[in-house]
Structures are given as structure tokens and as C-alpha cells.
Amino acid sequence: MDSTTALYVAQGIHGLAYGMVLFLVASGLTLIFGMMGILNIAHASFFMLGAYFCFQVLSTTGNFWVSLLVAPIAAGFLGVLCERFLLRKVHAYGHVGELLLTVGVAMVILESVKIFWGTQSLPITVPPVLQGLLKIGGLEYPIYRLFIIGLAFVILGIMALILYKTRLGMIVRGAVSDADMVNALGINVPVVFMIVFGFGTWLAGVAGVAVSPIMTVHPGLADQVGMDAFVVVVTAGFGSLKGAFIVSIIFGLLNAYGVQFVSQLAPVLMFSFMAIVLAFKPMGFFGEIE
Amino acid sequence: MTDRTIKGILWAVILAILVAYPGLFGLYFTNIFVVFAIYALYAVTFNILLGYTGLLSFGHAMFFGTGGYATAIALERIEGLPLLPAILIGLSAAIVLALILCPLLVRVSGVAFAMLTLAFGQLMHVLAMKLRWLTGGEDGVGGFPIPAIHIPGIGSFDIANPVNFYYFAIAVLGVSIWMIWFITKTPFGSIQTGIRDNAMRIDYLGFKVRHTKAIVFIISSGFAGISGSIYALFQNLISADDAYHVGNSFAPIIMTLVGGMGSFFGPIAGSGILSLIDELTSRYTERVDLVTGLILILMIMFAPMGFAGFLRLIKAKWFSRPSDKMATEGTS
Hints:
The structure holds two protein chains of two kinds. Helix content of chain A is about 75%, strand content about 5%.
């Protein structure tokens, strides 16, 4: 295999890994939006918190696997608190109020992170098992990126199982299409909201831990990935999980190959893609007709 | 005394304070006041989208930034450009940007509008960083010449002098705010509030909802461009992280919310309150945004109508006749 092909494959793996991370963040966003109608601006902040918690757990216990387990749960728990004690209180004032509340939460999280961990970049080392390259058929694959892709697929599988095979999943899908109706049928929808919000922020936390070794942990992380995740959700259509998956992968690859071929224009590619999609389908690729 | 004379006296007093301000409070507070006035206009232009037309924009900074950049680049590149044409270039650049975007933006409303404006705002931020030959990348455009202003028959004023700049900025910003206020009082302003309350009914009445939204959007953007170009002149610098940053899009939202959404003067009050908070907290801590974020959360939870709503509540409680009270309670 020649070096050009190897380069293409390596960039493809990079793009796929980033796309999967984007999907983990965007899926939480789109689930929360589909159910509650809230576009959670603070979602990327929970993602960043996941990365910072990972650093904290790693520096105390020294075990990456423990932080992979603990940090997302901590982020999800904060998400639940945020839903229960802040968002639920302003539900009556409509979506704009909720949207702005999440802006406030995002600001507070960002500034708190700066107070607790400072503004410098923090290093995170990958456990030895995940370091190095895997050789298959004469090509080399970075193990950690393969690990991210695998992890995301496992989570995707579990999510699909829960959503389509369990009673809870049925209720969630019902609430996505009509929360009032589900509520009228005697199901405690606010509790379901809380669970979904917690689950969404947990997903963001997982993504945060997953990217922390490959992107440095710094306060700009939320802006960087959060914006991409929003663009994914807008392009895919609000509330569409399938769309979020497909568009995440497209954007991941677009990003990776964009950096390789037109490095100057790489950041603009995604926005141009979004503008083109929205010019023809204002509700996004898989969005429902208004 | 009639209402009219009271109002006249009130305006005269405000005008007198504005004229005497630099002499009374000194240079430091004069500069703070200029920043407050710039953000007051910026927040008012935002509020005619959100408060009057019901469009929540998360990318209003793109017009602020475009106005600022256009003025700065024009002054840098064109030799001997007078001041007012430079501001007009800022205004027209913002309007051109709005014209390009509005075919896409008027088709959506609500959260989709917010997200689209956010995305385009980010796009402008990226462009300002990447187009180095035009915008200077991270450094921005700075140190451009600021021409003196010539008034025929009176003479010329050097506005590099902070006190002269204060009068110049207050005049431009004041006239802009007055023009926006005038627009909201016209029948066109009534169509705006109609779209906010019930877009479908406005459509049935035969008004063109999308056209109206587009015109409001363009007016708002143009004036935001003016505030941006005054900002660029004031700092003698405009940079992407300052003007196009998403935080600069959230600033007018917070001001509008703190001041009060439904009222025209609410955003101005909000801008004042936030400059005060900024001024007071920055003496003790670097984390000004933490305080602003907490205030935003508290405002939404406990006072969703903002400062103006709070005043209205007090007025209804203590300063009105029982019959008025019934009326205000009935409508709110």
C-alpha cells in the first residue's frame, strides 16, 4: 500500500472519530430539543465539564477507566440538577426564557471552570493499552481513535435498544412527537424530561472524556465543539436522531479532508454545507415540515 | 401642569445632564458613558427584533462587527475619507450583509431563526479571522486615522479628543435611537408587533409577513452597524474576538432581558445596569461574566419582565388610581 492511500485512510479515521464525538454531543442536544423544545446552549458546557472531570479523576486516581465511568455520571448529575431546579421553574415563560436560561448556565459553567482549573491547557495521557498504532493489512491505525469509534458505536447500540425495545424508550419517542398527549395518558412527563436531560448531558460527558486525550482540555473547548454540534443539529433537522448520526459523520469527514486539501477554508466548509441544505430545506435534512 | 409640559421639562433636564456630563464627572466616566451609549443603541436594535417582532437573534454581533470593520477598513484604505461617509460605509456594509442573509432567514422563526443567526455569526467570526489581507486576522484593524469633523459655518472639531468624541457619539447614537423610536410608532411598527403576537392573522389581513420581517431585520442590522462603527472609532481598533465573538451577540440579549423586553427604553436601562455591574465587579474580580450569568439566571427565574416590568409593577401598585389598576391587571 502506498503512502497516499495510507494518508487518505488516516484522515478518514480522524474524520470518523471526530464525527462520532460530534454525534455523541449532537444526539443529546437533539433528544433534549425533540422532547422539551429546549435548545440547550449549555450542552457543550457539560461536554467540557466531562473533560475537566476526567482530568480531575485522572489526577487523583490515575486510572483512565475510572474517569471514563465517573466523569460522565458527574456531568449527567449536574445536568439533572440544572433541569430540576432551574429549567423546570421557567418552563411556564416559554421557550425563549428557557433558551436564555441555558445561556446563563453556560456562562456560569465557563467562568467556574476558569476559577477551579485556570485558563491554561491541561494534559491528559491515554492508558498504555490504547496508545500506539494497530497494523492491519499493511496500514497503520491509531488505536485511540479506533477506540473512540468503537465506544460511540456501543453507546449508539445501547441507545437504539433502549429507544426502540423498552417501555421507557416508547414513552420517550411518544413524548418527542407529543409531550402533552403522553402527559394526558397518565405518564409523569416531567420525570421523563429529567431522565432524558440527564441522559443527554451524560452523553455529552462521555464525549468530553473521549476527546480529552486528543484535544487539549481548555476553556475554549465548549465553543469549539459546541458550535459544530449545533451546526449538525440544525443541518440534520431538530429532533432527528438518524439525521444527527448521518450529518455528524459527513461533517467529521468534511472536516478531516477539508484540513488536508483546503486548510484555509476548512472551518467555512461546514457552514457552507449548512447554508446550502437550509436554502433548499429550511427545516433541515430530516426535519419535519412545519 | 399637563403631561406634555412635564415630559418637556424631563427631556430638557436629561439633555442638560448629557451636555454637562463630561464637565461634571471627568474623563473616566465620560468614556464609560460612551461605551454605555454604544451598547444602548446596539441593544435597542436587538430589541426591535426580539421585543417588537418576536425574532430571537443569536448572531447580532455580525452586524455590529461588520459595521465596525467596514468603517475601520475604509478609513485605513481610503485617504482623506471624511468621518460621516465612513460611518455611512459601516451602515451600508451591515445592510448589505442583512440583504444577503434575509432571503434565508425570513423563512424561519423561533429557535430555527436563533440557530441560523448563531451559525452565520460564527461564520463571520471565522471569516474575519481567516481573511488576513482584509481584516488583519487576530490582530484586527487598528491605528487607522480618525478624521476631524467639519461643520460648515462653525468650524472643525478634532474628535480624537475624548470630550469632543463624547458629544459626537452621543449625537449620532441619540439620533439613531430617536429614529428607531419613531419607526416603532408608525403603522409599520404596529405590523411588527402584530407579527410577534399572531403572524398568521397579519398574513390574513393582507400584510406581507416575510417582507415586513425582512425590512425590520435590515433596519435593525443597519443601526447595529452604526453602533459598531462608533465602537471602532472609539477604540480606534476593531478585532474579531472583540466584535464578532458570540459573547458580543449575547450581550444585547442579556441587556434586553435585564432591562425589560416589551419596553422600548428597557434595553437602554439594561445597558446602563450592566455597565454599572461591569464597572463595580471588575474592581474586585476578573470573572465579570460569572456575575452577569448569575444575574441572567436570576432575572429569568424571578423577574421575567425585567427592570421595566418591575417599574411597571411598582407604578401599578402605588401610583395609579384603582380603576387604572384594574385595567393593568386585566391586560397583564
